[in-house]
Specification:
190 residues, homohexamer
Chain lengths: 190, 190, 190, 190, 190, 190
Amino acid sequence: MPQPDHVSALGIPDPADLDDDLKAVWAKCVEKLGFVPGVYGAYSLRPQRLRNFMAMYNEIMLAPSGLSKLEREMVAVVVSSANRCYYCLVAHGAAVRKLSGDPELGEMMAFNYRVAKLDARQRAMLDYAWKLTTALHLVDEADRDALRGAGLSNEDIFDLSETVAFFNLSNRMAAATDMMPNKEYHRLER
Amino acid sequence: MPQPDHVSALGIPDPADLDDDLKAVWAKCVEKLGFVPGVYGAYSLRPQRLRNFMAMYNEIMLAPSGLSKLEREMVAVVVSSANRCYYCLVAHGAAVRKLSGDPELGEMMAFNYRVAKLDARQRAMLDYAWKLTTALHLVDEADRDALRGAGLSNEDIFDLSETVAFFNLSNRMAAATDMMPNKEYHRLER
Amino acid sequence: MPQPDHVSALGIPDPADLDDDLKAVWAKCVEKLGFVPGVYGAYSLRPQRLRNFMAMYNEIMLAPSGLSKLEREMVAVVVSSANRCYYCLVAHGAAVRKLSGDPELGEMMAFNYRVAKLDARQRAMLDYAWKLTTALHLVDEADRDALRGAGLSNEDIFDLSETVAFFNLSNRMAAATDMMPNKEYHRLER
Amino acid sequence: MPQPDHVSALGIPDPADLDDDLKAVWAKCVEKLGFVPGVYGAYSLRPQRLRNFMAMYNEIMLAPSGLSKLEREMVAVVVSSANRCYYCLVAHGAAVRKLSGDPELGEMMAFNYRVAKLDARQRAMLDYAWKLTTALHLVDEADRDALRGAGLSNEDIFDLSETVAFFNLSNRMAAATDMMPNKEYHRLER
Amino acid sequence: MPQPDHVSALGIPDPADLDDDLKAVWAKCVEKLGFVPGVYGAYSLRPQRLRNFMAMYNEIMLAPSGLSKLEREMVAVVVSSANRCYYCLVAHGAAVRKLSGDPELGEMMAFNYRVAKLDARQRAMLDYAWKLTTALHLVDEADRDALRGAGLSNEDIFDLSETVAFFNLSNRMAAATDMMPNKEYHRLER
Amino acid sequence: MPQPDHVSALGIPDPADLDDDLKAVWAKCVEKLGFVPGVYGAYSLRPQRLRNFMAMYNEIMLAPSGLSKLEREMVAVVVSSANRCYYCLVAHGAAVRKLSGDPELGEMMAFNYRVAKLDARQRAMLDYAWKLTTALHLVDEADRDALRGAGLSNEDIFDLSETVAFFNLSNRMAAATDMMPNKEYHRLER
């Protein structure tokens, strides 16, 4: 059967009706990626909320941090795997493939990160991401100490935690809107 | 034993060293509330991230929306109850007590919202908040239709969902930093 | 909306029709507390069962034991937190506040006891209470040894276990009858 | 390997040192059953608590009630099955076999009650017992109405609920003490 | 009420219509056991699938292996206990009683294997069986090393794992067909 | 880091030492697929068990049945998704892509089948596969009736159930051996 062609089950406004700053974002996405990510489309139902989401996203995923961009994308995919979020697994799985140049690593993060051969630092980060996602009430000083033991500073732990927290937000927005990923992601970097 | 007196297990900078815009936020909090909420202190370890967090928080909890401010606080507490987040249960439980003038309602939201007598709209919102928090991979069109049947528009469902999603973020930041609520919250509006 | 004003969803007899020994209990409660606890009202539907319940309750919570009364109330609240029992969290949360003189400790026990600063003995007791409540089939000699290592005798372990077991009984009676706590508890010792 | 021969991992006093009323209970058990049930032995570490336990047990399992004695034992086994309690499955499984004259029914209750052919009333009672045991925070008026629809009065629902609640207590005492059932139960009524 | 007398809820063909090789199996079962196991009856709806099932079953349970036949049956029962599979608990519980000559051991395996006194090798095998059944995505090299530390070779681990895996298959076939065990099993070796 | 290059954590024999019938299987695989699937390699540690596994696999996945080959592969992937089995998600995800010509469908099955637009028959099959995998003790006649209502015969339900059951076996063998999929699968049919 033909698969869902909506971007969001809650509907989205006509891009032609967006404010100029958002039209500029749309244009820049098309220029750089060839398409506007579905999450932007879905969020454009509430333009100011989209602006806040983009600001937070860009800071967490792109700004300077003790975590590499690949590490942040690995965390994004592992959180989305725990939550079984289709949109984010497709979109950020592609990002792991691109940043690592290793298509198998992308699938390992999405299916079960525990099968991957990782160094101690990355394994500690992903174990923490899983626990903070699935049982946050059990996180305690021992978990922070495990990350410190793997070389993370307090600032690094903050950034890691906010990455985990942010994808727990965006996974839920994707589920709430039945957000559909752009088809371009599927074939990227295979 | 004396209880934890830290604001964040990851440490926080001296408020005297914050940028001027944040100092102004600090001053405004003291003026209006009598204290700076712990979440701002904890987040000030990474100032730009704090700015993004505040922008998102203010839009979700305070901007015009089809959901009343009390409804948003009820959602905040129910999400935090599902996640067993100490900081948010204390701080937002106080907000439910204040906005509703009903201390028992605050405790019902925190302990088990199902015992409260609620109208169909509020009950549908809280059932959805619980499901989107604990089993997002099962949320589907039937859940959205239940909300529509209770009178929510697509924009209302978006706002409700983002409130749920946001507290799934902030609950995790609280757990990650062992964030301690200001003592003032405990006695508020009893 | 006005909150539930029943004591039990299964109905209760007119207190004027109770046997004399129970009338005396009612009178003594009013004298000491100012009200008759809802659990007695709910249980009075079956008077002999109420007598047995009171006998067991009084022995477990009030009789001499290696556990202090505060420790027993802390265990009661942590069990009720694991089970999300509204009645017992309200009533015994108040007792923790009263016996400890520490309102925050009461809320920590109710929301997530792991955030509290506790000595090793109390932490061991509460970890055991959580496990015996949520996964009793996994309790084994290692758990008993952990308690012994924290200074508990076999008799203390028995008393602790029966406290846990008893609130697993009473939490279920509260859920079964939609038992509503007396409003007086909410404001107590804040 | 030889299986555990203790009655309780917390130790028990010498029966010769028990108070006279308990010695009389011991003697009566031997006369009627041929042995003293392990649960009495384990509980004799704390004699007054044993007295309370026996009073409650006798009222719940043996006193007049809208539930038959077989129904009460079926509930006991289903609760113990949900909790995976070895002692109670052995001892009360034997009771179901004896009261029903149907050894297969005893095993169905212990292994998975859903495979049994039951009338609507018994099935409703066991579904309720399972839910009140495993997810008490979700029990609500719809559950009570289902029982009423199957013919139970409010008093019957009370008695059913207290049976469920009581075995949630005794399952935990068995786990806490590694309580070992008397060997006689195993062969009974096969 | 009379208990289910079907062998499979999906129906079974008349044994008189089976192919000759299967008729021979039926005859051999009657000769050796006095009856045809229900699982063969249920599977005979799809004869070639039955042949494959029997070949796999015989190799796993009866062929030479580093695991004794009793150990394989203990594993079968513990897997079936985790899955709450009525048919397999009845049929293989009987096998444990028969091979061990210890009826209590059979019930311990079925109800909660952790109460049994086992040597380190058997305990390690059963802990592994439980984990591979209930949380296979968490099984890793540490689990294999624990088995090696208890004396199992790689071939032994393979055989153990396939026994666990096979009963995860057959438990599901029993649930899918509401497979009813032969009454003869219940009284066997008590 | 370089990813695992083993086929099985339990080791495998040199293919040159295999019996002639297995050598012929190896040769045929290379001829048809270009490689020997890792599962055959891992299973070759125990040759007779491999033969039984192949016989069962071929019957379930390739023999005539009321379920199409694509439907069987969709079931395989959904079971493997519930169990988070890396090997089977990679290998059978590729099969769904190939048989459907729809790469997105393969990812939907692997990540969260509920987002796919499916006809009622396929949706019923996958809901059943999920339940039989994750909560087999709750499967009952209502589940079989739902499948019948979607047009499945008793034979179809048998075949569907055995497909679910079989991947519950093979997922566990993959976890037990840390089975690594052939790299060729990753790029197939993107």
